[in-house]
Amino acid sequence: MANLDALLRLKGVFAAGTFENDGRLTSYKGDITQEEAAMAAAMCAANMQMARMQADGYTALSGESGWSPAIGFAVSGPKFSVCVMGNVGVFARNGEASFNEIFKTLRSMMPEG
Q: The domain that contains 51 carries what CATH number?
């Protein structure tokens, strides 16, 4: 289970949440509204599906393993990024965040398998 409080303690992270594969928000904490969190959950679920499709395509096209299964993605703008692994995501301020630390922590919260 995702520890949203631990994610919020990471430098630069200002919101964290979890979502179902169908895009339904299951929990969130931080400096965003419930409406923003619900919109983010839907976006993250859709992007996770796209990441899985793209990873499968890269595997088929390149003949190289290591792309699939896709376990996460990031979307970055000039000031902010969304980082997702599995069904857990965070919003981060680019100038403050350590993306290695964010992804390491997100990965540690994924079920084994």
A: 3.30.450.30
